[in-house]
Amino acid sequence: MWRNSWDTFTPFLAFPAEIRRVVYTTNMIESMNYQLRKVTKNRGHFPTEKAAIKLLYLAIRNITTERGGTTGTLGWKACLNQLSIYFPGRFTLI
Questions:
Q1: Residues 15, 20, 22, CA angle at the centre, nearest 5°?
Q2: How crowded is residue 31: how many other Cβ atoms within 10 Å of its Cβ?
Q3: Would you give per-residue pLDDT tens digits along the chain (94 residues)?
Q4: How far apart are CA 12 and CA 4, in angstroms?
Q5: Could you give the CA distance from residue 64 to residue 32 in angstroms, rounded to a whole number?
Q6: I need a labelling partner for 8 at 20 to 30 A (CA). Which of 1, 29, 39, 52 fits?
Q7: Where are the domains of the chain?
Q8: Residues 6 or more apart whose Cβ sits within 8 Å of residue 32
Q9: Are 83 and 18 in contact (CB under 8 A)?
């Protein structure tokens, strides 16, 4: 399988280790999905699609980096610095 996907995978190796460490992990994505599921779990159904989107939007505004005692993704600040070098002008660092 990896031989068939090698051409797709190798561009990932061109990034510095700081970026690769953050990109290959899905911890933050899983945390976000967990928090969105938590908000929608007890709602049953929504009267309209717009109502569901509004609830998810409000939930996204309140998402925290805390889950299960961990805070954020390890190495995120170093990753952001490297991304700002690789992709200048795409975002501003806070």
A1: 135
A2: 19
A3: 878 888 888 888 888 888 887 777 666 677 788 888 888 887 878 899 999 999 999 888 887 655 544 555 677 788 888 888 888 888 766 5
A4: 15
A5: 8
A6: 29
A7: 2-86
A8: 60, 63
A9: no
